[in-house]
Amino acid sequence: MNGTFEIAGTVLTYADAALVASALAVGILIVMLLVAWRRAVARSERGRVLEAQFAEIARAQSEMQGRMQTIAEVFGSRQSDLVKGLSERMDGLGHKLGQSLSDNTRRTHDDLSRLAERLAVIDKAQQNITSLSSQVVELQKVLSNKQTRGAFGEARMQAIIQDGLPNGAYRFQAPLSNGNRPDCLILFPNGAPSLVVDAKFPLEGWNAIRAADGPEASRAAETAFRRDVIKHVQDIASRYQIVGETHDTAFMFVPSESIFADIHERFEDVIQRAHRARVVIVSPSLLMLSVQVVMSLLRDVRMREQAHVIQQEVVKLLDDVSRLDDRVRRLQTHFAQANKDIEEIAISSRKIQKRGSDITDVEIEPEKPLAQKRQSPANSDGPPELPFHTYRA
Predict the structure, then answer these.
(1) Rounded distance, CA 231 to CA 198, Å?
(2) What is the residue extent of each domain of the chain?
(3) CA dist 328 to 158, 186, 315, 318, 332, Å?
(4) Hey, what CATH topology would domain 156-305 get?
(5) How many degrees, rounded to 5, is the angle at CA 123 between CA 118 and CA 128?
(6) Residue range 288-321, pLDDT digits in tens
């Protein structure tokens, strides 16, 4: 323990080292105490500051809570108003939307109904078009065959004649004196010659004109059609025009208005040849007009035939009128006599009324007692009074 040692050129003993160590330890302890004291002081000051800050924070938090509660109340009231407004607007919007949907549904239903009606009309028109198409096809088949086409034209001519003339004014396929049989004979009264109507129109040449592709083919078809029509006109004139039996003019019936118009427009030479041969090309409308004219002539002839009957009826009618005039005059005389009698009856009635008024105007004195009546003849100076029934008006 008494040994020595050297530190940095200084020789120290162990006792000195212990003292130094003790001194150092005491110094370190003092320093630590100072530090701890300072830390304690600092902590106490911080605590006060923290407490002040905590107090300030608590006050601010309470103020914040109050403000938050106020804001929550304001937000709650505004939220209720907002919810109420939104509910009212949503109700109005829902009502408008429902009304708009109902209107749109009704308009859509009406549009669909009209569309269904139009579709029904279109469907019916389509059915009619389909039916007409089939009829046109059948008509084309009929017109493509010469025999059936002739029968078609003859049937149409017969329908027009039958609709316009009475029975007995026409004859179909009637034989002539030369053995020929025209399609129709229109009979005139009083032994006048009959009018011939032919319904066999050469339609092959017309179909060839329509089917021609170029100008050369069209000219060739027109030449053939012109030749066929002129030949048919000459055949009508040579077969059916008989002096004294048939009229000097014959009809060639064309069953189509368009063909008739095209012939008059493009084949003027054919029309002139037909006129010179006294053959008139007629369409359905012209044949109908001619039939109406013939019907007027027949009506005039029948009126002339019945003229004497009409005259007799007129004479009888005049006799009836004269008898009616006599009866009216007699009736007028009876009315005049009746008026005279009525006037005389009125005069008598007025006289009776006058006499009745005179009777009611008479003044009657009251009746006297019996004693006075007995004394009155002797005492009175005038004539005796008579009873009431002795007075006369």
Answers:
(1) 14
(2) 4-97, 156-305
(3) 57, 53, 20, 15, 6
(4) Trna Endonuclease; Chain: A, domain 1 (3.40.1350)
(5) 125
(6) 888 888 888 878 777 777 777 777 888 888 888 8
